[in-house]
Amino acid sequence: MKLLHIDSSVLGPHSVSRQVSSAIVARLREASPTLDVSYRDLTQTPLAHLSGTHLAAAQGASAPAELAADLAASKAVLDEFLAADIVVIGAPMYNFTIPSQLKAWIDRILVAGKTFQYGANGPQGLAGGKRVIVAISRGGFYGAETPYAAGEHLETYLRWVFGFIGITNPEFIFADGIQIGPEHREKALASALQAATSLRAA
């Protein structure tokens, strides 16, 4: 069984989402010692954002030589995702949504004919069957019952994206309110780490 671990925070060892995603992977490795884990740090090896040249190449146009390495990276990212049985993602909220590094990765895995297709009845996801677990960190509180729920474009976006490609039950672990103060940050982190250790086995 293969696990793909993705981190997207720019904060390195100070990142809450990185600590929680690491704890998730540790829990699954403990439960399944033979788990084959691969890791991609989207801040250390960032993907270029999509351009018109990328889209033209995807439609079959000849790509300039300088785009070759990036197109190879796109293929590697998509192949990693397709091969994974489990995907663990560290996803902090930046300005009410996902980091741009994570968006660039998502743009490489949402590929018509590979992870979704359109048919007579509309879009159909082709990537179902994977287990996706997301470690979310947010500076404030954005739950459905809060005054700021309308500003939440991280969890809601990821639920939609993965549902679109056929993964209809992604799992989320939250560390909320981490910017309110040091004491609350530690409490939120401890709660998220505890949730990670309680995850069901792979």
From TrEMBL:
Binding-site list for FMN: S9, S15, V16, S17, M93, Y94, N95, F96, S137, R138, G139, G140
Catalysis: reaction(s): 2 a quinone + NADH + H(+) = 2 a 1,4-benzosemiquinone + NAD(+); N,N-dimethyl-1,4-phenylenediamine + anthranilate + 2 NAD(+) = 2-(4-dimethylaminophenyl)diazenylbenzoate + 2 NADH + 2 H(+)
Annotated cofactor note: Binds 1 FMN per subunit.
Swiss-Prot/TrEMBL keywords: Flavoprotein, FMN, NAD, Oxidoreductase
UniProt signal peptide: none
Entry keyword Flavoprotein: yes
Enzyme class, UniProt record, top EC level: oxidoreductase
InterPro entries the UniProt entry points to: Flavodoxin_fold, Flavoprotein-like_sf, FMN-dep_NADH:Q_OxRdtase_AzoR1, NADH:quinone_OxRdtase_FMN_depd
Presence of the UniProt keyword ATP-binding in the record: no
Oligomer status and interactors: Homodimer.
Function: Quinone reductase that provides resistance to thiol-specific stress caused by electrophilic quinones. Also exhibits azoreductase activity. Catalyzes the reductive cleavage of the azo bond in aromatic azo compounds to the corresponding amines.
Similarity comment: Belongs to the azoreductase type 1 family.
Protein name (Swiss-Prot/TrEMBL): FMN dependent NADH:quinone oxidoreductase
